[in-house]
Amino acid sequence: MKFDVNEQGYYGQFGGAYIPEMLYPNVEELREKYLSIIYESGFQAEFHKLLKDYVGRPTPLYLAKRLSERYKATIYLKREDLCHTGAHKINNTIGQILLAKRLGKQKIIAETGAGQHGVATATVCALMGMECIVYMGKLDMERQRPNVERMRILGTTVVPALSGSMTLKDATNEAMRHWINHPTDTHYIIGSVVGPHPYPDMVTRFQSIISEEIKKQLQAEIGNPYPDYMLACVGGGSNAAGAFYHFLSDEHVNLIGVEAGGKGVDSGESAATTALGKPGVLHGSKTLLMQTVDGQVIEPYSISAGLDYPGIGPLHAHLFDVGRVQFLNVTDDEAMNAGIELSRTEGIIPAIESAHAVAALQKLDLYEDDVVVINLSGRGDKDLETYIRWGKY
Amino acid sequence: MKNRITDLFEKKGKNILNIFYTAGFPLLNDTRRIAESLEAAGADIIEIGIPFSDPIADGPTIQESNKIALDQGMHLSLLINQVRELRSTVTTPVILMGYLNPVMQYGVEKFFRDAAAAGVDGLILPDLPLHEYVNTYKSLAESLNLSVSFLISPTTSEVRIKQIDSVSSGFIYAVSSSSTTGAKKEFSEEQISYFKKLQSLDLENPFLIGFGIFDFKTYSQACSYAAGAIVGSSFITALKESNDLPFDIKSFVRSIRSK
Ligand SMILES: Cc1ncc(COP(=O)(O)O)c(C=O)c1O
């Protein structure tokens, strides 16, 4: 397909594998084997059975009637919040744990921001009886406490990342260092469409089940597989990549990525990478990156731990570059208001990450016959403390 | 002029001591003073690290020195100026080592040119992909007479070692174990057999062993298999604890070179 990664691991000018030699053999092994492993029929059968019986897929495509009335359009929610463990992240961790087993790895490491990827990884490790260590920024451990305890209940060791801003970027650094120190028995389950090639492509493929289902579901609902708008929040970009993937070649579908504006794009406290970033290299790939003129990575900010990352996956950097995806940003306040609004109109408390996608509705010029799908990437249980602290409900 | 690193390996060829430190640490303008002291103390290669906010191959010691240097305002063009200035007194080979992103923002080609013009002899860019170097920068490096060294690790395959050898110039940087910088252990039998394997490969380039070299014993063991060794984290710890840089640098180098 037109937007697929090329042989060298690039999407346009973005992507590649910018890693120190100590990681090369592992990443190269993955690159050589990932496609043949994941498209082998036994793998596909096991993957889809687990997605169905364990994750609860397909997730519903729900017509949000009261929200539709309010915004005067037909709005569907893709209910990734109903996945086992509460977010889309598990689509990827199921895929990667099956891959890790086939690579003969015994131990798993992961990084996590909001804790959703950490929980999803801890869950599949419990399921497969594998040892698991999750790195999590110390600040994130404080603001997503329930998820820390969920991981521990599942038998995972949660290690605080104490460097930098003590959030997702730093947790990713620590996970990469761990992998350098344990190259032979350990697989690193990256939680988004970031990292060196082939991770962005591999994670995109595992998450693409989201748009595969949306197409079928829309066809059944409205007799046409194409929405006018497909909205998703973008931290690293895995739920968005999954929600966009099967629409990428359908140029009449407006794909909208929603980034965290934090306290405002120009406030100095933001995580809106496409607005603030320049091409750079972090965590193994060339992508858009928030950085100083000297190339030091800027500590991002968002009320939402899952969006608090200074880069985006290289696929998104390319889609932004060529204009295939439009990127908007939403402030903390706008997202929190949208979270409350969705709770009150539809009885669904969204993850604050996903609330960013909902908040973008206000920024679209919608016509009454427009069909909008919002990828509701996760549920708000993990964010109760943040909702409570925010207080305006 | 002949490349100083090539010259060094031709003339000396063994027991080469390469000492690494982070630019702008302990103080922003210590870069030159440390280089002068290292030369006076008899180090063979001076390897200066370009600080980066996210040094994923480094352990806590070098992470901390990077952070302190950046907090003090260290950046790449300042470092290139510092090298230009230290070249008025220092004749020892100088290598700049750094993660790609600060170099990319500076402009990779401009960096190669400016570094060479300032008197840098060699570069190590651990996250620059080999093929990108070959396709885009190798001929430039050659025209500027810069040596460019690549890393190998115990998990690097023999085929790839050969490939890296054919592309590297100056020397190959053999990472002693699967680890980030700053490990402090005696060498295991596994590591020793990896060194022996490297020795038996008859590479075109000499190799230096780095990571986990912190005392006379690890240095001299490394030197018995390789052309020399690279010391980083333990030197940075010595700088951190020092009240008298020239004196302490001299004793540090002596403690590595002899029992
Ligand atoms: C519910 C939810 N949505 C979105 C994200 C952001 O990640 P991504 O952009 O990879 O989907 C996270 C990350 O933790 C999350 O938990």
Provide tags for this entry.
heterodimer; A: 393 residues; alpha/beta; Rossmann fold; 6-stranded mixed beta sheet; 4-stranded parallel beta sheet; 14 strands; 18% strand; globular; B: 259 residues; TIM Barrel; 9-stranded parallel beta sheet; 12 helices; binds pyridoxal-5'-phosphate
How would you concisely characterize the structure shown here?
The complex is a heterodimer of chains A (393) and B (259). Chain A has 393 residues and is of the alpha/beta class.
Q: Quick one: biggest sheet of chain A? A: 6 strands, mixed
The two chains with the largest interface, and their residue counts, are: A-B, 36 and 39 residues
Number of domains as seen in the coordinates of chain A: 2
Structural class of chain A: alpha/beta
Percent of residues in β-strands of chain A? 15-25%
Bound molecules: pyridoxal-5'-phosphate
Look at the structure and give the mean pLDDT of chain A: 97
CATH level-two architecture of the largest domain in chain A: 3-Layer(aba) Sandwich
Helix count from the secondary structure assignment of chain B: 12
Strand content of chain B: 5-15%
How does this model look, in words?
- The complex is a heterodimer of chains A (393) and B (259).
- With 393 residues, chain A is α/β, with parallel strands linked by helices.
- Chain A has 2 domains: 11-50 and 89-203, Rossmann fold; 56-87 and 208-390, Rossmann fold (3-Layer(aba) Sandwich).
- Chain A is 42% helix and 18% strand.
- Chain A has helices at residues 24-38, 41-55, 65-71, 89-102, 116-128, 138-143, 145-153, 168-181, 199-207, 209-222, 238-244, 273-276, 314-321, 332-346, 352-359, 384-390; strands at 10-11, 14-15, 61-63, 74-79, 107-112, 131-137, 157-161, 186-188, 229-233, 254-262, 278-282, 285-289, 325-331, 371-376.
- A 6-stranded mixed sheet of chain A has the order 3-4-14-9-10-13, with helices on both faces. Chain A has a 4-stranded parallel sheet with strand order 7-6-5-8, with helices on both faces. In chain A, strands 1-2 form a two-stranded antiparallel sheet.
- In chain A, strand 5, helix 5 (116-128) and strand 6 (131-137) form a beta-alpha-beta unit.
- Chain A starts with 9 loop residues before the first strand and ends with a helix.
- The model of chain A has no long low-confidence stretch (mean pLDDT 97).
- With 259 residues, chain B is of the alpha/beta class.
- Chain B has a single domain (4-254), classed as TIM Barrel, CATH 3.20.20.70.
- Chain B is 49% helix and 14% strand.
- Chain B is built from 12 helices and 9 strands.
- Chain B has helices at 4-11, 31-41, 60-71, 76-86, 100-106, 108-118, 130-143, 158-167, 189-200, 216-225, 233-241, 245-257, and strands at 16-22, 45-50, 94-98, 122-124, 147-148, 151-152, 172-175, 207-210, 228-231.
- A 9-stranded parallel sheet of chain B has the order 5-4-3-2-1-9-8-7-6, with helices on both faces.
- In chain B, helix 2 (31-41) packs across helix 4 (76-86).
- The relative contact order of chain B is 0.17.
- Chain A binds chain B through residues 8, 16-22, 24-26, 163-164, 169, 173, 176-177, 180-184, 278-284, 289, 291, 293-297, and chain B through 52-54, 56-59, 63, 67, 70, 75-76, 99-106, 126-129, 131-132, 150-153, 155-157, 160, 164, 175, 178-180.
- The structure holds pyridoxal-5'-phosphate.
- Pyridoxal-5'-phosphate is lined by residues 87, 113-114, 116-117, 192, 233-240, 306-307, 351, 353-354, 377-378 of chain A.
